[in-house]
């Protein structure tokens, strides 16, 4: 991008704003644009603080360069239950409209069936089940080593891709439900004392998951949405938010709230 031709000493908020607008014009998501602007702001702040860069202000800071709207939109995608879809069709003999009922299976059922039928289903099915039981991220599951899994104590240690901590830089221990233990035992690599739990490339599995979702006709679902679903399910068990945060790895209640999505019917059932 042309912003790379600008000297830091001459960089202005207008340059950053123009870069922002070019990214938006190229259909980058607002959240992606914000992450890039924040990265630039962080790099400049480090240079000013640690390397003595002489800039009167940080042109990429949010107070000088506005962030695009919609970047902080809360995503609330959850797996939908089974439903009955009603359509109407005209009877060619009588000319009357006939009501037809179609049973639409639950999205979780359709997802698991699609994953099982895929080329990498042996890995993706237990991965999806484990994600729904533990709220672990895809990268965290792919980084698991069998030495991190204690099925006797029913505890899984999440260390992240670096081995030094997950996305927020912390190592956490996650309790395993019976379904989570069953999911781990169904991995093709089960039985190894050491070595990776997932024996396939994460990028390949991510692409395959997307293809399965498309073929199953499940709209707007990503693997990360399983973390949203799992957090909402676990909240019914761990009603203390501090306990729930220990499992999901969220550092603040505000971040936890972005992943907890109880619908109105579910909340109404808890009322006396």
From TrEMBL:
BP term (GO), one: DNA integration
Pfam families the UniProt entry points to: Phage_integrase (PF00589)
Origin species: Nitrospirillum amazonense
A Gene Ontology molecular function term of the record: DNA binding
Protein name in the entry: Phage integrase family protein
InterPro entries on file: DNA_brk_join_enz, Integrase-like_cat_sf, Integrase_catalytic, Tyrosine_recombinase_XerCD
Domain Tyr recombinase: from-to ranges: 98-272
Superkingdom, natural source: Bacteria
Record key words, sorted: DNA integration, DNA recombination
């Amino acid at each position: 991008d042309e912003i790379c031709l600008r000297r830091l000493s001459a960089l202005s908020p207008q340059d950053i704003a123009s870069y922002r607008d070019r990214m938006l014009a190229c259909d980058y998501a607002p959240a992606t644009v914000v992450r890039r602007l924040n990265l630039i702001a962080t790099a400049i702040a480090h240079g000013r603080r640690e390397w003595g860069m002489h800039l009167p202000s940080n042109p990429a800071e949010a107070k000088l360069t506005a962030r695009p709207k919609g970047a902080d939109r809360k995503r609330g995608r959850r797996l939908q239950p089974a439903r009955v879809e009603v359509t109407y069709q005209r009877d060619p003999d009588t000319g009357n409209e006939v009501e037809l009922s179609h049973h639409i299976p639950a999205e979780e059922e359709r997802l698991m069936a699609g994953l099982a039928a895929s080329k990498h289903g042996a890995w993706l099915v237990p991965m999806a089940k484990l994600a729904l039981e533990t709220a672990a991220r895809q990268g965290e599951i792919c980084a698991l080593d069998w030495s991190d899994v204690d099925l006797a104590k029913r505890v899984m240690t999440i260390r992240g891709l670096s081995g030094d901590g997950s996305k927020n830089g912390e190592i956490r221990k996650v309790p395993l439900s019976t379904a989570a233990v069953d999911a781990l035992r169904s991995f093709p690599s089960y039985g190894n004392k050491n070595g990776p739990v997932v024996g396939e490339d994460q990028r390949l599995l991510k692409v395959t998951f997307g293809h399965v979702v498309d073929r199953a006709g499940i709209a707007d679902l990503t693997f990360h949405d399983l973390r949203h679903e799992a957090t909402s399910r676990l909240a019914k068990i761990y009603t203390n938010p501090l306990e729930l945060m220990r499992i999901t790895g969220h550092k603040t209640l505000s971040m936890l709230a972005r992943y907890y999505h109880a619908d109105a019917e579910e909340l109404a059932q808890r009322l006396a």
